[in-house]
Amino acid sequence: MSTFVQQLINGITLGSVYALIALGYTMVYGILKFINFAHGDVFMLGAYIGFLAAVYLKLNLVGCLIAAMVFCALCGIIVEKIAYKPLRNSPKISILITAIGVSLFLENFMQLIMGADSRVFPRLIEEKNYHFLHGNIVVNNKQVYLLIITIILMIVLNYIVKNTKIGKAMRAVSQDMDAAKLMGIDIDKTISYTFAIGSSLAGAAGVLVGLYYNTINPLMGVLPGIKAFIAAVFGGIGVIPGALLGGFSLGIIETFVSGYGSSMYKDAVAFAILVLILLFKPAGLLGKSLKEKV
Amino acid sequence: MRKRILILAVILIIYAIFTLGMKVGIIDDYIKLNILLILLNIILATSLNLISGITGQFSLGHAGFMAIGAYTVAVLITLPKPLPFYLSLLIGGVFAAFAGLIIGLPVLRLRGDYLAIATLGFAEIIRVVIQNIDYLGGASGISDIPQGIDWTGYYVIAILTIIILSNIINSSYGRAMVAVREDEIAAETIGINTTLFKVLAFVIGAFFAGIGGGMYAGYFGFIQPDIFNFFKSIDILVMVVLGGLGSLSGSIIAAIVLTIVSTLLQNVPAVRMVLYSIILIIIMLFRPQGLLGKREIRLSDILSFQRRGV
Amino acid sequence: MKFGKVFKRVVVFIAIFTLLVGSCLLSYSKSSSTIKLGVNLELSGAVAQYGQRALEGIKMATDEINKKGGILGKKIELVIFDNKSDKTEALNIATRLATKENVLAILGCTTSGATKSAAVAAMKYKIPIISPTATDDKLTLDERTGKTKAYVFRVCFNDSFQGDVMAKFALKTLKVKSVAIIYDASSDYSKGLEKNFKVAFTKGGGKIVAEEAFAKSEQEFSGILTKIKAKNPEAIFAPVYYDEAGLIIKQARELGIKVPIMGGDGFDDPKVAEKAGSKYANNVYFSTHYSGQDPDKKVQDFIKKYKQLYKNEPNAFVATSYDLVYLVADAIKRANSTTDREKLRKALEDTKNFAGVTGVITINKYHNAQKAAVIIELKNGVQVFKQKINP
Lengths: 294, 310, 391
Description:
heterotrimer; A: 294 residues; mainly alpha; ABC transporter involved in vitamin B12 uptake, BtuC; two-stranded antiparallel sheet; 11 helices; 4 strands; globular; C: 391 residues; alpha/beta; Rossmann fold; 7-stranded mixed beta sheet; 5-stranded parallel beta sheet; 12 helices; 15 strands; transmembrane helix (chain A); cell inner membrane (chain A); transmembrane (chain A); BCAA_transport_permease (chain A); L-valine transmembrane transporter activity (chain A)
């Protein structure tokens, strides 16, 4: 029993990581309908900015988070303007290839300037372990932080999309770009905002994940990027609470597969679940399925 | 008829020139290796183009089928009583095609990005499974596979692949596949069995990917699950998109160009991947429809003095 | 008009054709005033962290040798290429080095997979390839015939030796009878160590109570650690590289697993202790090539110099790569030829009692480096020499 509870805690922690990255993913996909392959690498960039801010500017956790979010937001806007905007009317697959190019660029550029070796992320907060049931269940304060921050960011994001003016514009753009334009919505500005918010979320995720595992490296975004996409699809892509649900589900499933089966197959299981979800509920757990227009 | 003889002549002349070059030594082993890589990439890119370009189904799983072909060949030609190489190669292709069928039937109901991610997932599953089979060498792979194929084999198979694929594309099957790409619902309403043609394209593509993988094992002598990871699939997809979705000749040119670019970038070891990614982005920005778009450059058009119809 | 269009196409066709052949024909001036050594390393891509560190060691040793006047009156010239952590590219570059660049020998690669792929070219063109860190047992042996591959060498010990060392250490020094293993099933290094440890440990009367595998670039181990904790092993053996090692130690200790954690030379990096945190980096043992506390002047000089040059602590990749260049230089001297690959191969084979930073190396008949392993203990995050185990 205690093992089960411990595994559940492990799963929720891992799920928070996926959910954090999936939030940004789902937002960009929801509005532009394309897989931003570079999202995982922006996440990596955030981790490095946090690292540099902590080591050289001696900022605290909040400072590092803000630095990473601001920098990644700028970075997201620049990438969108340079690499994606000129292709807005091109086949989607072209943008996917460009996104792959951006992703390769970010990874290799970081390997070049920061070195390929991993870095140890500074300990920005005092670590504490809480023991329950005679030490059989252990919870770490960083796990708690991770969970709480993920939920807060989700609520904030949901508020922005649902209740603010820019959020309304985003939703309009996601439904019909041309119609939105006719209604006087500034498409470019809206998309820039989308990328800024999505990327800053990735940046925050980078810092938090760096802090939690205290290890960062230039390729840290590749696998979590794909997993976060799976999580986003799982929960219903474009649906913000769905990213959270998908992230937690994926994290818990993976942990249980490695805890009760074999860790080797957890990626395979993640993909298998993705395929099943897509086949039986193509819109994801919380998504609404739209009929194809003829 | 004259056209066909002319094309055949060109194919034979190119073969003769290269063979002579290799014999005399103008083409040294390093160049030869890269020519073989180009031929291999041509097979992989054109076959993926049938799936992604002609039929419009984005697959990121080509490396998985390659792995099946490569491992089948590696096992069959190293048995105590080894099978002949070309028979093994064929079996490898058939196995890959079979895997394509099993995966394609459920997965091809998906569309666009979802399909891409699902095929990527299946390719990764294939890789993980191979990695966990000790008989296949697990993570450390199979080395010292006897060489079963050389330049002639590579060249002949590459040419055959191109001929078979272009014949499929120009047949009624090919037109049905294009119809599926252009508008699935419309295709269905005019009586095209869309599932059949999607799966068919997928199976044929997988077959050639399996052949490509087998050829890799048969010449490069060492395989490891890691060689067939999803970066390999992305590499091939990049060639297809860069050449132009739906253009076989585009895939061929892209395979040649990208392989050469990668080789030239060897000279700048520290920044080679950074430059590669920048080149990739720039090409896509300037030619989002790919180098050739949907057009084809036909050998016969280049050779004949007639104006090409559009 | 019509002719012009056709002409244009023919030009394009020829242009592509010449680009294809011409680009490959770029030849480079050969100078005979230097000894050319090819370097085939993972400088970008998935395992760039190993290649980049290895290059530091290679460059450092080469500079030192050249400052002292080189070998046989000639300076060493490194011809460096990046194989992108890609096996096909490793073979491509090995072919290039052997045929086009005309180097005397190839140094690299850091991982067994890439080295095995490059070895195909080494065997074909009869050029020695010496890996600093590839440990797979099968690397130097032909998988079909079981014979030693004539041109493939390494300056590190192989998986079976290291697996053996750690199994003996667990049984005799730690006196544990049950061990849980965590390994990276996607890495041949990790799998090789796991296999060999298991064989030696069970033969010695020990019991493996759990075996958990994960795949590369994993960061979350609490799932498998929780499972292992429930099985109550007396020790954990984790044959992984330093990135995972630090995380495994940390996450295990956080979950309250207090038993000894053992590993191989993949643990030999200061980052293990940094990542785990000095509070947790206790009761950790690993086998490696040398100890930083070795009072030997050679070792201390190496560490001091490396720190000056790169402002960093050396790890196993740096140290073995540093030795690699000196060992090859020594062989070139004995071969008394700066161009003859065959003589160099023989000289490499005859290497006996070469005193390097990572110990006294003898190349045995399987082309493996036979040398003593040292066992290091982590005490509050500090590496402490524990014992030396001779082959």
